[in-house]
Amino acid sequence: MQKEFEGKVALITGATGAIGKGVAIKLKNQGAKVFISDLKQEMVDEVCAELGCAGLAADVTNEGQVKQVVEKVTETYGAVDILVNVAGIIGTGAVEDLTEDVWDQMFAVNCKGSFFFTKYIVPQMKEKGAGKIINFSSKSGKTGSALMSHYCAAKGAIIAFTQALAYELASHNINVNCLCPGITDNTGVWNTCSAGYIKDMNLPREEVVDKFTAKIPLGRLASIEDVSSVTVFLASKGADYMTGQAINVTGGREMH
Predict the structure, then answer these.
(1) What does the alpha-carbon distance between residue 222 and residue 218 come to, in Å, rounded to a whole number?
(2) How far is CA 228 from CA 15, 92, 119, 173, in A?
(3) Paired residues of 36 in beta bridges
(4) What are the tens digits of pLDDT across the range 195-238?
(5) What is the pLDDT of residue 184?
(6) Which residues of the chain are modeled with pLDDT < 50?
């Protein structure tokens, strides 16, 4: 029985993190040739050994390093069919305490990284006449969250970037969508975010978790499986008629 992604080449950024790795596992299990990237080569090597895939480290804010990753995946597996831009950072802080460097870094990692990888992968997809690009925004890219103005602004930009590309690339049969996850348990992002809220709100961790869970109609935080499953769906033939969408994975917390 043929697997969904047999013969397809998938490039996943931020793939040593919980969500990126979860996406890589699912795509590989469904037959894709998976190539991963993240900031530190030793961590990339560790995941590659575990998954039996290839990879190369890169700073997503460095255009030259991103270009090297694209050249390496092409040399290893051929042209990319699926690009999943997971790499990103999060942070908290009152707007008056944010420095220009913190603001710029937030946009560089979350926005410039997705731009660079897209820039170098799109010509391959145009040549093939097909492709799937999945970007990662956030629930906070749709509805802002207190003490996260820089993060919300960057993730909102990813939604607009996704929509613009969907129009731009539709005639080339390239689908561009993005994920807007809510708080996802057992991830570095939530650990960082919750630590910031614990400090800024002066509350114990249990109360912070309770505060956020109470806002979710389904009564729990998202799991890595919840997010990775929707991501892989957007890469599949089942999503061929979807483009320009910002899909909520929030347990009902976000409904627009």
Answers:
(1) 10
(2) 12, 25, 24, 23
(3) 12, 55
(4) 666 777 777 777 777 777 888 999 988 999 999 999 999 999 99
(5) 84
(6) none
Contact status, residue 31 vs residue 55, Cβ threshold 8 Å: no
73-92 as b/e, with b when 16 or more CB fall inside 10 Å?
bbeebeebbbbbbbbbbbbb
Cβ burial of 173 (10 Å; 0-12, 13-18, 19+) is: middle
Give catalytic residue positions: 151
Contact (CB, 8 A) for 36 and 20: yes
Does CATH place domain 9-185+223-243 in 2.60.40.10?
no
Residue 210 pLDDT: 77
Sheet holding 82-85, edge to edge: 54-55, 33-37, 9-13, 82-85, 131-136, 174-181, 246-249
Pull the structure tokens for residue 216.
Answer: 């979710």
